Amino acid sequence: MKNVILVAALATSFAFSANAMNAEVDTDGDGMASLVELQVSQPDLTDVVFNEIDTDGDGFLNDDEMAAAIEAGTLMDPEADA
């Protein structure tokens, strides 16, 4: 039971972190992050890397794609500096 609670707590904190980043970079409020929006906080992000992270190929990162990129270390987690 303790393991279930720990896993749930970690998943919740990770989801919050990804959503917080999305809110920080989503300057037009469409619920997704474009390359230009992400480059404001992460200027070294290239279009090549962005396209690799954008797994559905729609030109934007959704919460799942951003969470995966943070977990993989491809994108910086804004909560890490807080």
TrEMBL record:
Keywords (A to Z) from UniProt: Signal
Domain of life according to the entry: Bacteria
Domain EF-hand positions: 41-76
Pfam families xrefs: EF-hand_5
Signal peptide interval: 1-20
Name listed for the protein in its UniProt record: EF-hand domain-containing protein
GO molecular function: calcium ion binding
Classification via SUPFAM superfamilies: EF-hand (SSF47473)
InterPro entries: EF-hand-dom_pair, EF_Hand_1_Ca_BS, EF_hand_dom
